[in-house]
Amino acid sequence: MNSDKLTTQILKVFANSPFTAFNYKQIASKVGGYDKAQRQLVQATILEMAESKILVEEGRGKYKINPKHINDDLLPKNYLVGTIDMKQTGKAYVIPQEEGREDVMIAPNYTRHALHGDTVKVLMFPQRKMHKPEGQVVEILHRAKTRFVGRIQKMERFAFLVCDNRNMVVDIFVPLNDLAGAEDGEKAVVEMTDWPEQMNNPVGRVVKRLGKPGDNNVEMQSILAEYDFPLDFPAEAEKEAAAIKAPTKKDIEGRRDFRKTTTFTIDPADAKDFDDAVSFKRLKNGNCEVGVHIADVSYYVKPGSAIDREAYERGTSVYLVDRTIPMLPEKLCNGVCSLRPNEDKLCYSAVFEMNDKAEVLGRWIGKTVINSDRRYNYEEAQEIIEAGSEARKAENEADNAVLELHKLATILREGRYKDGAINFETQEVKFKLDENAKPIGVYIKEQKEANWLIEEFMLLANRNVAECIGKTAHEKGKKPPKAKTFVYRVHDEPNPEKLNTFVEFVTKLGFKMKVGSRKALADSYNRLFDQIAGRGEEYMIDTIAIRTMSKAYYSTENIGHYGLAFPFYTHFTSPIRRYPDLMVHRLLERYQGGGDSVSADEYEDYCKHCSVMEKKAADAERTSVKYKQAEYLSDKLGQVFPANISGVSKWGIYAEIEGNKCEGMIPIGSLKGDYYMLDEDNYQVIGRRYGKCYKLGDPVLVRVRAVDMFKKQIDFDLVEEEPDMNGKSSKTKGGKTNKTNRTAGKTRKSKSNNKSKKKT
Q: What pLDDT score was predicted for residue 371?
């Protein structure tokens, strides 16, 4: 038997029965290996596949396929593998793993107990004319999650968990003896333990009681649990952290000493984990030395330690509205590793010699020790920049360094845009909270020069570290050495379909865009943003432009960073709060020491995990913002606010209140005087009879009609008339809340609906 052909045959057997475990004799009989030599070859091939993690052992001598290695090439043509995107109606779409294939629609009665995010095997139906591809789930290859958060509904003989997640379309049945003391109405975390074929609802057990809904701490813990972030550190990790001490003389030996160089941090006023600092020194030749100093977390957190295992699982710190859930124990993130002023700290640094034109004349990357002179918050640094050296004499060396670095950062920033970087500026919602964490105000955080100063030097360091490993020098006429496996932050070019739709749309509004080359497109984007600044269309075009872009992610395969226009880019500057940065530090030290390249496949798996956790963290952060926005408006029912249309769908119009970005929906049926239809191509709904349209970005007046804290959902009414002096409309519009009766014998559906609304 040919070895490669045999491997493919074995894979197909496992792929067609992904839940079945086989031993080598069973596989041999299925691939035609009948004599002793052939069976031994099959056995050896299976062992190799298990060692490569293509197969996983299930009991002694029996194996199943690893779901990650099932692909469409292994399946018959009328099957495919993909990810379930579950809708609140119970209908679903399967997003195929194979690029270029259309999503497959799955009717509610053909989902076979699959849940949102699950990896499934689909049997395709013969395609009907003028219809999307349809099919049915035949096997669930991998559950995306088994723990769910929601409210307990306790009956006389049993209970259910009504899930917070609106994509969870069924409730979970919980036997009374598996409630772990949870009471009716309490929030809890339930683990799904079984889903018998004949039952309409999965079965689960309470693994953690969270408390009463509406309590701020309970709601924030619910969000973390929903996105699979742990609520505590394991005891072993805390014990390891407690044993870590401040750097000693021995720890400092062999490091480049920056303790007498002017060094400072600039961070938000409420920050505690300072993982980056900058230093400035004027050299005798007239040039300057700029240091970007990053906490040397890898010195303290060793691969395989309890702290490291926990940090990898989390992947990132999570920043909810009222709290930070750190990636590392507090002893490290806020203590030993945090670059606090007037303390010796160990760093991994990128140091640049630059002239006054901000040209890099030389660089050095290595281990250092620093002692920060000053901790600035952004507001303090901004005051120094706005005052300037001429308006007032800088009070100390650190203030002078801020001004010098601001000049260099301004040149770097302008140069990036000339080189083709795209100037996307996102708005960050911040809350003023009282002593009980109740929001008493909402505002948009403004980015200013102090933010840009730090951003530019972090970009410079990230870019140079990536180049240091990614660029392979070679002599003329000789083949360049093979690049070593590294962790890159990559960003692909826009989806051509989305981009063409966007270009057509802005052309209708009178704006021109060139899409010929990458540089021409970037220049067009930046010119467009300048043209629309302050105009009514600004919000609408900004929103759609961002949606045309791909998402950045981590990978060992370097494709460059499209948005930044960098051929090499990584994340080096935040190892306290991002696990990929910690991996970058370890790889950099390994390669600088002459070490061999690590396994690309292994590190690609790490990158995928970190990208997934980054998205979960961003979703958790957005969910906490939506909860606080709903809480902020919960005592403002009936009040009228100016807003902008932020989205349109067949269900209704989404609008964001000006100034605080609280988003709610105006149901399409509540629009009076006409029958409105969705015009998807032009991002608007339009009246069939009179042609009145509501378009993305249009200013509107909205009244807060209802707030559902459980669903984190806000409902608006559209107000056509001006509000009175008290901020209320002269007319009152309202809606009724529908109650869904649940009948025994039918699938218990989850009570939720509606939908919601960048990291370099």
A: 97
What residues contact residue 136 under an 8 Å CB cut-off, 6+ apart?
Answer: 106, 107, 110, 111, 112, 122, 123, 125
Q: Determine the pLDDT at residue 480.
A: 66
Check residue 691 and give left, alpha or beta (phi > 0: left; psi -120 to 50: alpha).
left
Please give the backbone phi and psi of residue 137, each rounded to the nearest 5 degrees, phi first: -75, 130
- Where do we find the tokens 């197909």? 12
DSSP 557: S
Environment class of residue 426 by beta-carbon count within 10 Å: exposed (0-12), middle (13-18) or buried (19+)? exposed
Residue pointed to by tokens 């004027």: 282
Paired sense of beta strands 63-65 and 79-86, if any: unpaired
Q: Which helix (H) or strand (E) holds 200?
A: none
Q: How does DSSP assign 664-730, residue by residue?
A: EEEEGGG--SS-EEEEGGGTEEEETTT--EEETT-EEEEEEEEEETTTTEEEEEEE-SPP-TTSB-S
Closest to 625 (Cα-Cα) out of 652, 661, 651, 655: 661
Backbone region of residue 182 per phi and psi (left: phi > 0; alpha: psi in -120 to 50; beta: other values): beta
Structure tokens at 236: 């072993």
Element (H, E) at 174: strand 172-174
In order of 152, 348, 424, 718, the CA distances from 427 in angstroms are: 37, 31, 10, 25
Smallest Cα–Cα separation from 26: which of 70, 62, 76, 51?
62
Which residues of the chain carry a pLDDT beneath 70?
1-2, 19, 71-76, 389-395, 473-480, 536, 721-760
* Geometric angle at alpha carbon 283, from 277 and 288, rounded to 5°: 50
- Least Cα distance to 73 among 9, 140, 25 occurs for 9
Residue listed under structure tokens 């009989």: 29
Note the pLDDT of residue 755.
35
Q: Taking the CA atoms of the chain, what radius of gyration do you get in angstroms?
A: 29
Q: Residue written as tokens 């007032």? A: 392
CA distance 419 to 560: 14
Amino acid at 39: R
Our measurement of the distance from residue 449's CA atom to the centroid of its chain's CA atoms, rounded to an integer in Å, reads 26
